[in-house]
Amino acid sequence: MDYSTSIQVSCRQTRFDIKEDAAIKDIDVNGLNISIVSTPPTASSSESDVSSKSKITKYSKSAAIEILGQAELKLKSGHRYGLIGRNGTGKSTLLRAISERLIPGMLQNLKIAFLDQTISLSNIDNIGSGNSTVLQYVLDSDKYRNELLSQRDLLSQALNDTTDSLSVVRVMRQIRHDRLLKEFSYVEKMARLRSGARGLQARKELVAMEKKVSESSALLLARPNSSTLQQDSQEAVDILSLLQSELDMMHATDLEAKARRVLAGLGFNDERIKAPVRTLSGGWQMRLLLAAALVKVSDVLILDEPTNYLDLLGIIWLQKYIESINSDTTVVIVSHDRSFVNAVCDETIILSEKSLKYFRGTLDEYEEDFRSKRLYLLRVKEAQDKQIEHMQKTIQTNLKLGKKTGDDNRLRQAKSRQKKLDDRMGMQVNAKGGRFRLSKDMPGWHDNMRAHIDVPEEEREMHLKFPSASELRFPGPLVSLEKVSFRYSRSTEEVLHDIDLVVHLGDRVGIVGLNGCGKSTLLKLITGVTTPRKGAITKHSRLKMGYYSQHSVESLQELGKFDLAVTALSLLLEKSGGSLSEQECRGILAMLGIAGNTVSAVPIAKLSGGQLVRLAFALVLWERPHIMVLDEVTTHLDFYTVNALSDALAAYNGALIIVSHDRYLVRRVIEGTVSGDAEDDEDDHDDLTVLSTKRTVYRLVNGTLKVQKDGMNQFEKAMEKKCMSISL
Predict the structure, then answer these.
(1) Strands (E), 593-646
(2) Burial (CB count <10 Å: 0-12, 13-18, 19+), residue 711
(3) Residues 99-128 pLDDT 10s
(4) Domain ABC transporter: where (predicted)?
């Protein structure tokens, strides 16, 4: 039986009736609980009834997966937050609960723009006709602005209509009805989300609201009369003035110009702006969704993985755009791109252990602070453990001698020290670094006289470890490209021109460039997927090459849909052609963080994006290649896994050719300028002699490779300079 999933939310709410204030833009929710609930499909027709009672969902606790428990959600107006957490902890679920206003304690007047990375691309063109253009889609996506414009135009036309004096009455009835429906939607949601006494009151309000909606619907069908003409006309003038004032504040008349600027900044040229949405590829569709979110007038802007499918020019433009938006707009970003998060966000939210923790600073500052605090607490705990051990020995000695000799002083001393062990061991300083005082630092009831020393665990994904490259037997270049050129057909221009590249064992080669410049084409030539039109590509006679395509995860997802029974283990066994045993396959998958029942019992159709990346690496590494060619490997990973992957790649003893827009990955793996946690293990490389450790970053531009002498910094500065010509 197929189960549908929904989000169940509850929180602590104030007893006081706080009216919505347009000036309040903060989100401050305590006691937040969020769960993903699986419910069986409905079969009876009565369950499809749209009555209010049927909309109050009954959840099965046994089928609920808890995301947050008694957490605090605090988003201050104008602040930019980076939300981090491991894959599967519920970051996207939390963002969806905020965007859909499922949290009862959240103000409902907030305008929220949301880029959802989990949206189905098949439903992208859900606004306008099937031939809606890119520009029209962006303009139509701001429903709030379009609603204001529609009401303004209707009121203006009715007030100026000299042929039908009662048209104002009809328009006012329609506007009141539309606003009543919005209020009904909110009341219905509260009746569904609230429980207990609040739920009972909410359901009473829902019954009363249903009556109002019914009366309003009947009034729409009734013929208008002149009894309320003067009152409706005055109300129409007042509403029209308020609408025009709000539209002026939103700069609604400049929306098309703003939409064109945003689309241009995200890489849309004039031809693509005019193209129908249905003609866009998946990557361009996601850019379109990002443009729609940026253009919307919002109090809260939520972006879930906005840098996916963007090149570095687009990422830098997005950084500058977010920095330039209204200072009252709250921004929440989830991204695996560490450099982007550090540049944009001034505060960090950590989703861990079903709780939300806050840090005032960037992601790098948080990690540095976390490491320093953890090191301090480890030293404090180690010193105190030694003190406790010494005191316990002293207590035992005093007890033994006191009982033996009848020395009451020794017994009292042992009792006093035991009391100190039981009640007064723990933190000796408070959170501010001052002397700990019980009355100030631990008010109220507690089970100890001091706070326990809790050393926080590292918030990192499972450590990744790659098997070492197989023995090469004799030296020589692994891959050599000489004057290689490529074009797709005789009628098209050359994509690549006179490419020269030599890669030896142990080399680190990074290739950067704008989208569409030919990076993936170059990798396909190196791996033999395509052949050059001119030039020669030679390879070592014993070369083993592993290739991770930028579409590797999508290919695995398609395979999972086609064959629902295939698992990570069965796929790797099939890929190895019997050369690996089941135990060896399990070992490789375990090294990459896929272990237990997930290996053999979970179909790949149900694996997360991060798990599919790990499986794709297993399919690359099983043969222990001498060189790995990697094309955009970080797209489906959280930043914890990017860290682990970077460390594993940095420790890999084979050669690497990496195409990536991730600045941290390139600097860590290719340039070696960012320190990591990878430790050299000489035992893993006894069978391999590394002949070269050349580190080079190339920029592919106009079909040719250019060495970046200053590495990623040089390319980043070039993109920043180029970005200055694109208006925000």
Answers:
(1) 627-631
(2) buried
(3) 988 887 777 778 899 998 776 545 554 544
(4) 51-378, 479-727
C-beta of residue 559 within 8 angstroms of C-beta of residue 546: no
What is the rounded CA–CA span in Å between residue 94 and residue 602?
A: 25
d(CA 360, CA 563): 47
Is residue 429 very low, low, confident or very high in pLDDT (cuts 50, 70, 90)?
low
- With a CB cutoff of 8 Å and minimum separation 6, the contacts of 519 are 511, 512, 513, 631, 659, 700
Chain segment 516-528, per-residue pLDDT in tens: 899 999 999 999 9
**Tokens linked to 635:** 């797209």
pLDDT at 239 (0 to 100)? 84
Q: How far apart are the first and last CA of the chain?
A: 50
Q: Which two tokens stand for residue 404?
A: 């033996």
The stretches of 362-492 forming alpha helices (DSSP H) are: 363-405, 408-423, 438-441
Do 115 and 306 touch, CB atoms closer than 8 A? Answer: yes
- Confidence tier at 700 by pLDDT (50, 70, 90): very high
Selection from 137, 102, 74, 94 nearest residue 275 by Cα: 137
C-alpha distance from residue 682 to each of 219, 587, 653, 685 (Å) = 83, 20, 10, 5
Among 98-102, 238-242, 711-715, name the most confident range.
711-715
Q: Which two tokens stand for residue 488?
A: 């797709």
Q: Please state, in angstroms and rounded to a whole number, the distance separating the CA atoms of residues 495 and 29.
A: 54
Question: Burial, 252: exposed, middle or buried (Cβ in 10 Å; 0-12, 13-18, 19+)?
Answer: buried
| Domain range 478-544+628-634+654-679+696-723, CATH class | alpha beta
Averaged pLDDT for residues 648-669: 93
pLDDT value, residue 573: 93
Residues recorded for the chain: 728
Average pLDDT, the chain: 82
- The first and second tokens of residue 534, run together, are 């001119």
Asked whether residue 306 carries a pLDDT value surpassing 90, the answer given is yes
In one-letter notation, the amino acid at residue 610 is G
Within a 13 Å sphere around the CA of 198, how many CA atoms are in the beta-carbon half?
A: 17
**Displacement of CA 378 from its chain's centroid (Å):** 31
| Angular region, 15: left φ>0, alpha ψ -120 to 50, beta rest | alpha
Which residue, among 149, 152, 176, has the nearest Cα to 237 in the 3D structure? 152
Query: Are 165 and 285 in contact, with CB atoms under 8 Å apart?
Result: no
* Structure-token pair, residue 20: 């919505």
For residue 5, what are the β-bridge partners? 38
